[in-house]
Amino acid sequence: MTRWRFTGRHMFGVLIVMFGVIIAVNLTMARYAVTTFGGTVVDNSYVATREYNRWLAEAAAQKRLEWHLETELGPQRRLRITVDRAGAPINGRISVIASHPLGRAPDRPIDFAQVGEGRYLAKKMLPPGRWLLNITVRKNRDVAHFTRDVRS
To answer: Where are the beta strands (DSSP E) in the chain?
Structure first.
């Protein structure tokens, strides 16, 4: 009976399999990294840093308003929004832009109708999928911005 020996050919095979697995994993991860990121966070980081203090001031002003916003996805994927301050309804103008979190679908403005004191109902259905809602509520000179994540 002959004894099995580990030769250079065996080592070559081990190296080929090992590097093949590493390359396959790297290519897969690179593909996912490129196909799942939809774009930039800010278009110009220099301008964003200059605007930072203004954004902080706007956030502080919104916090002083003490407005509370609730979103709910109702029947037929129609979005419902309720806005109040300590239980008192806020009647104002509302605008909503639904954007895909990864930028794969174009942004969609959503029109709302006021259906009660501080209550709003979307006029159309929200398409299926995950959406990031950028909500702006205006009452007189007061403005509040909210962001909500919704799956329909």
So the answer is: 68-73, 79-85, 88-89, 93-99, 108-110, 112-116, 119-122, 130-139, 142-151
